[in-house]
User: What shape does this take?
Amino acid sequence: MEILLPSPISCQDWPQQVEYLAKEAPTAPFDPLLLDFVHTVSLRIMNSKKIRKQPELIALAYWMRKSHVYQIMQEYRQYYRHSTPLPRGVVLHIVPTNVDSIFMYSWLLALLTGNANIVRLSSRSQVQLQPLLELLNDLLLDERFAPIRNRNIILSYGHEDEITKILSSYCQVRVIWGGDQTISHIRSIPLPPAAVEIPFADKFSWCALQAEKILAAPADEYTQLLEQFFNDAFWFNQNACSSPRLIAWVGDDPTIYAAKQRFWDGLKVIIEKKQVMQDSASRINRMVCGYRLAAQGIANSISSESADHPYRVHIREITPELRQQHPGNGVFWETEVNKLVDLLPFVSYRDQTLSVYGFSQQELCNFAARSQGRCFTRIVPIGQSLTFHYIWDGINLLTAFSRELTLPSIS
Amino acid sequence: MSLADFFTENPYSLSSQEKQPKLLAALNKLTEYHSQHCPEYFRILQALEHQANAETISHSFPMLPVRLFKLLNLASISEEHIVKTLTSSGTTSQAVSKIYLDSETAFRQTQALTSIITSFIGKKRLPMIFVDNQTSIQNRKSFSARGAGLMGMSLFGTDHFFLLDQDMNVRWQEFFSFLEKHQRQPLLIFGFTFMIWKYFYQELIQRQIKLNLANSILIHSGGWKKMQELAVDNTAFKAALQTETSIERIHNFYGMVEQVGSIYVECECGYLHAPDFADIIIRNFTTLEPNPIGQTGIVQTVSALPISYPGHSLLTEDIGTVWGEDTCQCGRKGKFFTIEGRLPASEIRGCSDTHAFDRRIL
Assistant: This one.
């Protein structure tokens, strides 16, 4: 067990610190002090040469900028215009290693809504997060941020259920940033009766391309589109739950055929330009995925015998189990439909993000309306698959971290 | 499909010019045969738009990643013709390869193994010691890689003696009486590298026993992963065993359950050798294109043996280097090479459950 924040701690050991944290007087949601803190962290990240090198932390700092946090506050107030929001109390965040930024989004949203926080990082994430944690600790030494220092703790420990059990006993909300097996495991550790749990399970994401629009895209817009698609897919080696894995082409056959040519040829150039790492093991994983699906009769065409980028596997039917066979690391499954709504029968509750190009607002609204509820929880333009929003995976984290006080109208 | 051409007295007799056309013809036939008899294989070729029976050079055959045999049941025979099922030992992953053999394939494997082994040890069957116990060969219908290896090798010895008991302890008393019984005769000793090291060699050291088995032959294979952890390479292994047992003829071999029979035995000069009916192709780490001689890469193995399953061209996850063809100092023809280890697993970043708890991203 290691306490990563605050440093130094105010109490003797972590159990005392956690108990202290739970008892401290809360801060009001979006208190100026909280806004000031978030704003200052954002500025410091932008000015830190060390941290600036990590693109996901730059994206984080941008998300934390003053105007954006102000906008979040406005939306929060708008939502609670007829009632009074209250914090839930203590939020326990169990976060993954590989996206250093996700713990920050989860933590900051709970902080801004007035909660005390316990954040559990895995022991492996520390090295990469060291500069960020140093920055935060340094800032918390400032006496004006004492209320924040006293009500937030970031810890790191191994798979020790006893510790998770103690931490869980203090919380009113437990957020688990998946995957499925972790969620099932943590679920076996009890929560106080009134506490709620927010699990973010394993998810699968698609991309829908309007073939005609791909063909018609002007050169500069088209290059930008490819760059953005590249970022969505390759920024986290296609292993993020929101990275596009299945590409659905929409249009008639000849148009799709021509559009595919244009799109994949263009992407190949970008991939070469960006010098995507080609480690042998992921290449073999791609082959295994394609060959296996072909052997099973699920795929009927594979773009390359030895899994060259971009590795495309044409899928004959989309089954629910299929989603678990995707190895990430640059495998694009492809399918075609006439109209966007033709995809609906294949959408499952496991699907999260649909990134799109070439569809009108009306088409997208119609798609959602006709889904009868079995729909993606995010439909975003290509390039924004990985962009965090406080409504994530269908859950509004601002409200999930809040309770609602109703007041009598006494005249 | 006759292999008569391939099985001669000396399985290392064909020069590149003689071997490549023969092998090419055999592999082309096998690709065609499997595409007609194994629906899964057929569908893979179809998805790749690969024409069977059209290759003019042996490195352009489609190769199946060896892991596919863990994920799928790949057979070119119907169930009633299966005489034996081989499974990989699968110590490091849960899934095991399943290799289905018919009598023809099993026969060819035996023939292949015989021609290779006898070329090293001679035709006379020698009293034989297994550095193993008897439990791994008890089921005769289904074999682990370990059991298959033991069964295969048992053909080349007589009066088989299992050195270890069920708890992996040396049966010292029985061992010494066996040695006494076969005094002054060369013995054939076979076992898995790591087991020989741990249960035999280290016991000898601990008990300060030195054996004089100067005329005997030791053949060993597999388990290199654990040897790598112990930082004992092939040369060190050989030297250590020679010191304790005086065995001069120690031969490692490289082989896999997915291509039983076509094994690659280490020669007197320390190189593994491809027999006439099989070959090694080293592929570039990044592009998977064939590498020139002397350049390390990923190992592809091709073999003319497998009829009952589509395993004639496999992409392994092993790393190796071909050092030459037909020119080894030992006089054997064919490619000679070394194996350097295994590919590191790809780093998975993402929501995969295999790295539960610690690894999940948006």
Remarks:
- Chain B touches chain A through 42 residues (CB under 8 Å).
- The longest strand of chain B covers residues 313-325.
- Residues 348-362 of chain B have pLDDT under 50 and may be disordered.
